[in-house]
Amino acid sequence: MNANEGHDPAPSRPRARELGVRIGTLPTGRLNAITDVPGVRVGHTTLIHGDGELQPGIGPVRTDVTVILPHEGNLFLDKVPAAIHVLNGFGKCLGQEQVDELGCIESPIALTGTLNVGLVADALVAHAIRENPEIAITTSSFNPVVGECSDQYLNDMQGRHVREADVLAAVDGATHGAVAEGTVGAGTGMSLFGYKGGIGTSSRIVVSKAGTWTVGLLVLANFGRPEQLVVDGVSVGRMLAQTVEAPERGSIMIVVATDAPLLDRGLRRLARRAPLGLARTGSISGHGSGDYVIAFSNARSVRVPHDVAPGNAVLPLGVLAENSQTMDPLFQAVVEATEEAILNALFRATTLRGRDGNIRFAAPLDVITQALRAAGRLGGAEYP
Amino acid sequence: MNANEGHDPAPSRPRARELGVRIGTLPTGRLNAITDVPGVRVGHTTLIHGDGELQPGIGPVRTDVTVILPHEGNLFLDKVPAAIHVLNGFGKCLGQEQVDELGCIESPIALTGTLNVGLVADALVAHAIRENPEIAITTSSFNPVVGECSDQYLNDMQGRHVREADVLAAVDGATHGAVAEGTVGAGTGMSLFGYKGGIGTSSRIVVSKAGTWTVGLLVLANFGRPEQLVVDGVSVGRMLAQTVEAPERGSIMIVVATDAPLLDRGLRRLARRAPLGLARTGSISGHGSGDYVIAFSNARSVRVPHDVAPGNAVLPLGVLAENSQTMDPLFQAVVEATEEAILNALFRATTLRGRDGNIRFAAPLDVITQALRAAGRLGGAEYP
Amino acid sequence: MNANEGHDPAPSRPRARELGVRIGTLPTGRLNAITDVPGVRVGHTTLIHGDGELQPGIGPVRTDVTVILPHEGNLFLDKVPAAIHVLNGFGKCLGQEQVDELGCIESPIALTGTLNVGLVADALVAHAIRENPEIAITTSSFNPVVGECSDQYLNDMQGRHVREADVLAAVDGATHGAVAEGTVGAGTGMSLFGYKGGIGTSSRIVVSKAGTWTVGLLVLANFGRPEQLVVDGVSVGRMLAQTVEAPERGSIMIVVATDAPLLDRGLRRLARRAPLGLARTGSISGHGSGDYVIAFSNARSVRVPHDVAPGNAVLPLGVLAENSQTMDPLFQAVVEATEEAILNALFRATTLRGRDGNIRFAAPLDVITQALRAAGRLGGAEYP
Amino acid sequence: MNANEGHDPAPSRPRARELGVRIGTLPTGRLNAITDVPGVRVGHTTLIHGDGELQPGIGPVRTDVTVILPHEGNLFLDKVPAAIHVLNGFGKCLGQEQVDELGCIESPIALTGTLNVGLVADALVAHAIRENPEIAITTSSFNPVVGECSDQYLNDMQGRHVREADVLAAVDGATHGAVAEGTVGAGTGMSLFGYKGGIGTSSRIVVSKAGTWTVGLLVLANFGRPEQLVVDGVSVGRMLAQTVEAPERGSIMIVVATDAPLLDRGLRRLARRAPLGLARTGSISGHGSGDYVIAFSNARSVRVPHDVAPGNAVLPLGVLAENSQTMDPLFQAVVEATEEAILNALFRATTLRGRDGNIRFAAPLDVITQALRAAGRLGGAEYP
Questions:
Q1: Which of A287, C25, C185, C272 fits a 20 to 30 Å CA distance from A236?
Q2: D323 to chain A, minimum CA–CA distance in Å?
Q3: CB-based contact (8 Å) between A96 and chain C?
Q4: pLDDT-flagged residues of chain B (< 70)
Q5: Which residues 331-360 on chain B approach chain D with CB closer than 8 angstroms?
Q6: Is B103 in the C-facing interface, judged by CB distances under 8 Å?
Q7: Reduced 3-state DSSP string for C59-120
Q8: What is the complex's ipTM, to 2 decimals?
Q9: Cα dist. B95→B195, C103, C238 in Å?
Q10: What pLDDT is attached to residue C323?
Q11: Are B279 and A284 inside 8 Å of each other by CB?
């Protein structure tokens, strides 16, 4: 099932902002989503089947894949500058060294369950070859970028149930517009503060004399214990701690997109701010957590062409100068959007039962909103 | 003036905890200071003289130096494992590459104003030679560790007014026990969220089956704009924003001490958590900020001897195994103590007028506590 | 075909040392191979079938996999300290971030062709689950380590022809003893200085008062243009330059094994010396090269247990003190063995024709030895 | 004594090339010096006084400072993109973290003896303030870049004899044109392969369809034991090993200048190739060695302005595309020029007696050239 077909991107559970939560002070983009960055698309494939006792290699299956496409063109031929920051490397982000070396991404960014990384990488290779039949024949190899979190609590991880077709469907079905959140795509089997987690997104608009830029965030959120949860500064988790059992094997993958014309070093600086937003949700980036941030810019003036005529090898770029006026608003945007994207993952995710009857419940939005209201932090609508 | 002589380490302004602020859930050490880690000492020299218009190179002077001594022995002969993490490298931490390469510190850790780094480093060399007359004659060279923040708003930075004697006095006068906070030592000329900042400290005790460890923190806090300030989750700063002019050229140096037996890699993991505590005070780690974390362990079972007999070169160490049970409490301790140490710097710092009549006011604790009380976040005494 | 079954590990072509080449001054181990480090095993699976024109996805096939097993026990339960150094990151080394974070390897190290990385990683997961059925059920996930070079010139890379069974066969068939070199395993389709390249190995023994240690090296060598080749300081390549066409898309994966009791930081220092040996063969680490060094120690006194009883979490380790006496011989060993392992890959590799009739010829040992003899560099036997 | 006044930059001892040594295949620049990169200047101050027994803090003095100025303008206002690579961090390179963070250098690059770093940094601050009186008053702070090697064998290091005036004299006296090599400036007290070492320089010209670029190198060479010395592939050192006593506490600082329009990431790639040239001289980058590479580009199309008008914050840059055609020649240039610069340091350095009667003799060029001739490696003039 491709979440983009027949899946309502805004089901019954509200986003944080719809409940009146206001994270930070910068305005959001129109959709408050990573897709507010013009050209960025997101696709999910969701795999849910089987129930009952874990049969390793067979099921139950609660997993799959989410892809982010930085722009609408051919990514291999028209790469985007990028950087990957590792906060806690108990995890994998295939492709990281080449992004480090060359400062760009030439692949859709795929997120999935931990043990699926090999198969998803292989599927991205298949996709790249389909789009660029010359890969590894007359031109160089290809660097797929795949991040992961562990869906161990709900899913038969050993089964590596993702299939090449799932990845291709997510890429081919990737769309602009609203992004499905919560229990979807790579987020299907994920847990967050002991509740159901998964995919969340948010965005911010930065207006300055230098220009108007969008920062869009998407997270695969899968970390934390209930008592750690902080919502907009309120330690909501301390009111929840007794109610949910919480073996933590968390992780978070954060994808930062922007149209601000930054190269790899500037993007690395953006990526390094995402943990500051993560921290505000209560995370301590636990030992077992694989916490990664992938940042890219799809501004045209910083693109990295695959083919360059020898006589035109000095590329004319337009790159944002880095100073407090230009960078601090972008940093703030990353911090705010990270925090809100994680909350959206938590707020939107729906209860799911997985292997061995393990259940991750949707976070109790009534308790959360009551706590926020008591602390004077709710400006908007009530819930339910 | 040496702050350790005749300086009351607990003047009229209260620490955050004395006002009822409770950061996190772990217990503090006895002093709630970096000196709770047995063996750690802190020394300050404070230099305040002159007033009125800036005369570059002459004054007014609002600066000086703070030193942290990891243990009571000879640091050159008995080094401590250490790691330095850079969150935003717009700044200096002399000695960082050797700490990276060899995984240890052999010097007192000195903090000072930005342009003083050269002279303070030179003074640490003088001190090391005094203690180890064989340095650079029959044995290897010496690696001083010096971090800095900019005291530009109040101090005649161009004057580099620190003297070798100031550094030696801070080292020789370093003591166990309560640590002077706020407008003292390297913190003399620092600003924090547009108010007066400087030195702050805090600690946490971690009790587990693996052992009982102390994590102690000291910060030189010099960052932020008023509207960013968050205290225990409450966006106090939004109530203050209008009242203080705020050109930001911030920075923070964070020193993490522990007696948990970790080597450099484990300590780097601790260091990487300090930004998560920093984030909770509202920081976005602005472009112009030099944000560094220096972490060391002074546990005897992980010390690095300078001289090793060739036949005994395989050192018997006792090193903490890293897993969620052992590391997560230490990570939490770092996050909590970072947040609280920054608040202590803010709460304790006293108003200071510097060059050109520039004033940094002590943070308005009445407004802050009112805001916290309104949000239900104050458990303790009132202020004033 | 598993190269360890029915494949003569010492076919007609001689190793560099058999021809009288003497690299460096340290003694080699008994086999002059990575397997001189007690406990280390190597396995190859070689896949050669089809001929003629490239049919993308079908063949001809000239590829497969080589695995290095750090010790004979269960690697997941009894991990080895390790570090990965990236010289030029135009390539992939899956698993690198977790090795960085936790300082250890818990997987066989697999080498393969570039586009096979996903499938080989997936096969290592299958192997780890077979050995540890609790992975991702009651215990944490698993971090496979897979490096790669491009076998584009000879192989149908797009086909990703490696199969799970190939990887399992290489792991299960891995042996102590002499290591097959040249056109074998992952080396099957590789090129070296425009000639046939592939697998090479070498070792050195370091004797000091601190102890006697072995350093073993294995390379997957796939780089360089003919005119760059230097053998033992003699620019042999300049005499060869006209004779071989040389489109360079090189790479080298270097695996350093030792029984010297070093942790991750010390091993990283060893890893950083391998490029110095690489340089002596003439490499400039070209733009298109993915040049990685993976170093591990299998000394018992530094092993990293997967399970630790909470009450015994302070591990008693024996770690080599780092000073010039202890480290310089190990560094020299790495430099010498890297150079010699690359020469062995070149000397042992046999001519292979691949896709589209592309041929990589075995290096002309007669020309090379003549050049060396003329320069007074040959101490031993002649060739042929 | 300022080496640029009254010091013959080409004294009696010849450069490697003058003796017929031909390193690599690329053409050198006109001067075969770092100053072949248009705009780059070099200045030395040399301090030699006193003789006899070491009186710590007094003398004998064999030390001082060398500075490299990337261009002729105001470096603080018109910064150059740069990167610093650490091969072995047993040493210091003050300023490294800010170069990492912001990707540029705003200071002359100073090289000196290890314990002088603090004072030299302070002198660079004084110079920067003289040129830019607004530093740390109305504008941000300043990041001096200072590298070092240990001149312990000949010099009274404890004395830190460098003075602010020495540094200012080196900066003010810096010139285009031929560069004094050997026993001069920071190189005064340095040792190389057990002989006298110090300053060396070399350059290469890269011609391609993308443009014609110069790569210039300057080294402060202070490493190695006699038996390690390799000259153009010939293990000359093995013939010298008995003749010179050699306690090794080496280090090398390498400065790479280019006018190829590269930003920090591209320059980091260049910097990482310098160790490959270092390796070819026989270095193993010993434990006690502080081995650093500082690379910058002074191309106008990549300069980093200090002040940017908010409305013009998107800078129009011209940046070299990175591919094998553009980068491999630059990499080769770095490798070749590093090797030759080190040889020039060795060949040019003149015998010097220092503290306690310690002598470093000039390398025996007759023995070296005989060995090269015997190996067929000498194309040019004889010596003497």
A1: A287
A2: 9
A3: yes
A4: 1-11, 241-249, 379-384
A5: none
A6: yes
A7: ECEEEEEEEEECCCCCCCCEEEEEEEEEEEECCCEECHHHHHHHCEECCCEEEEEHHHHHHH
A8: 0.95
A9: 30, 23, 44
A10: 95
A11: no
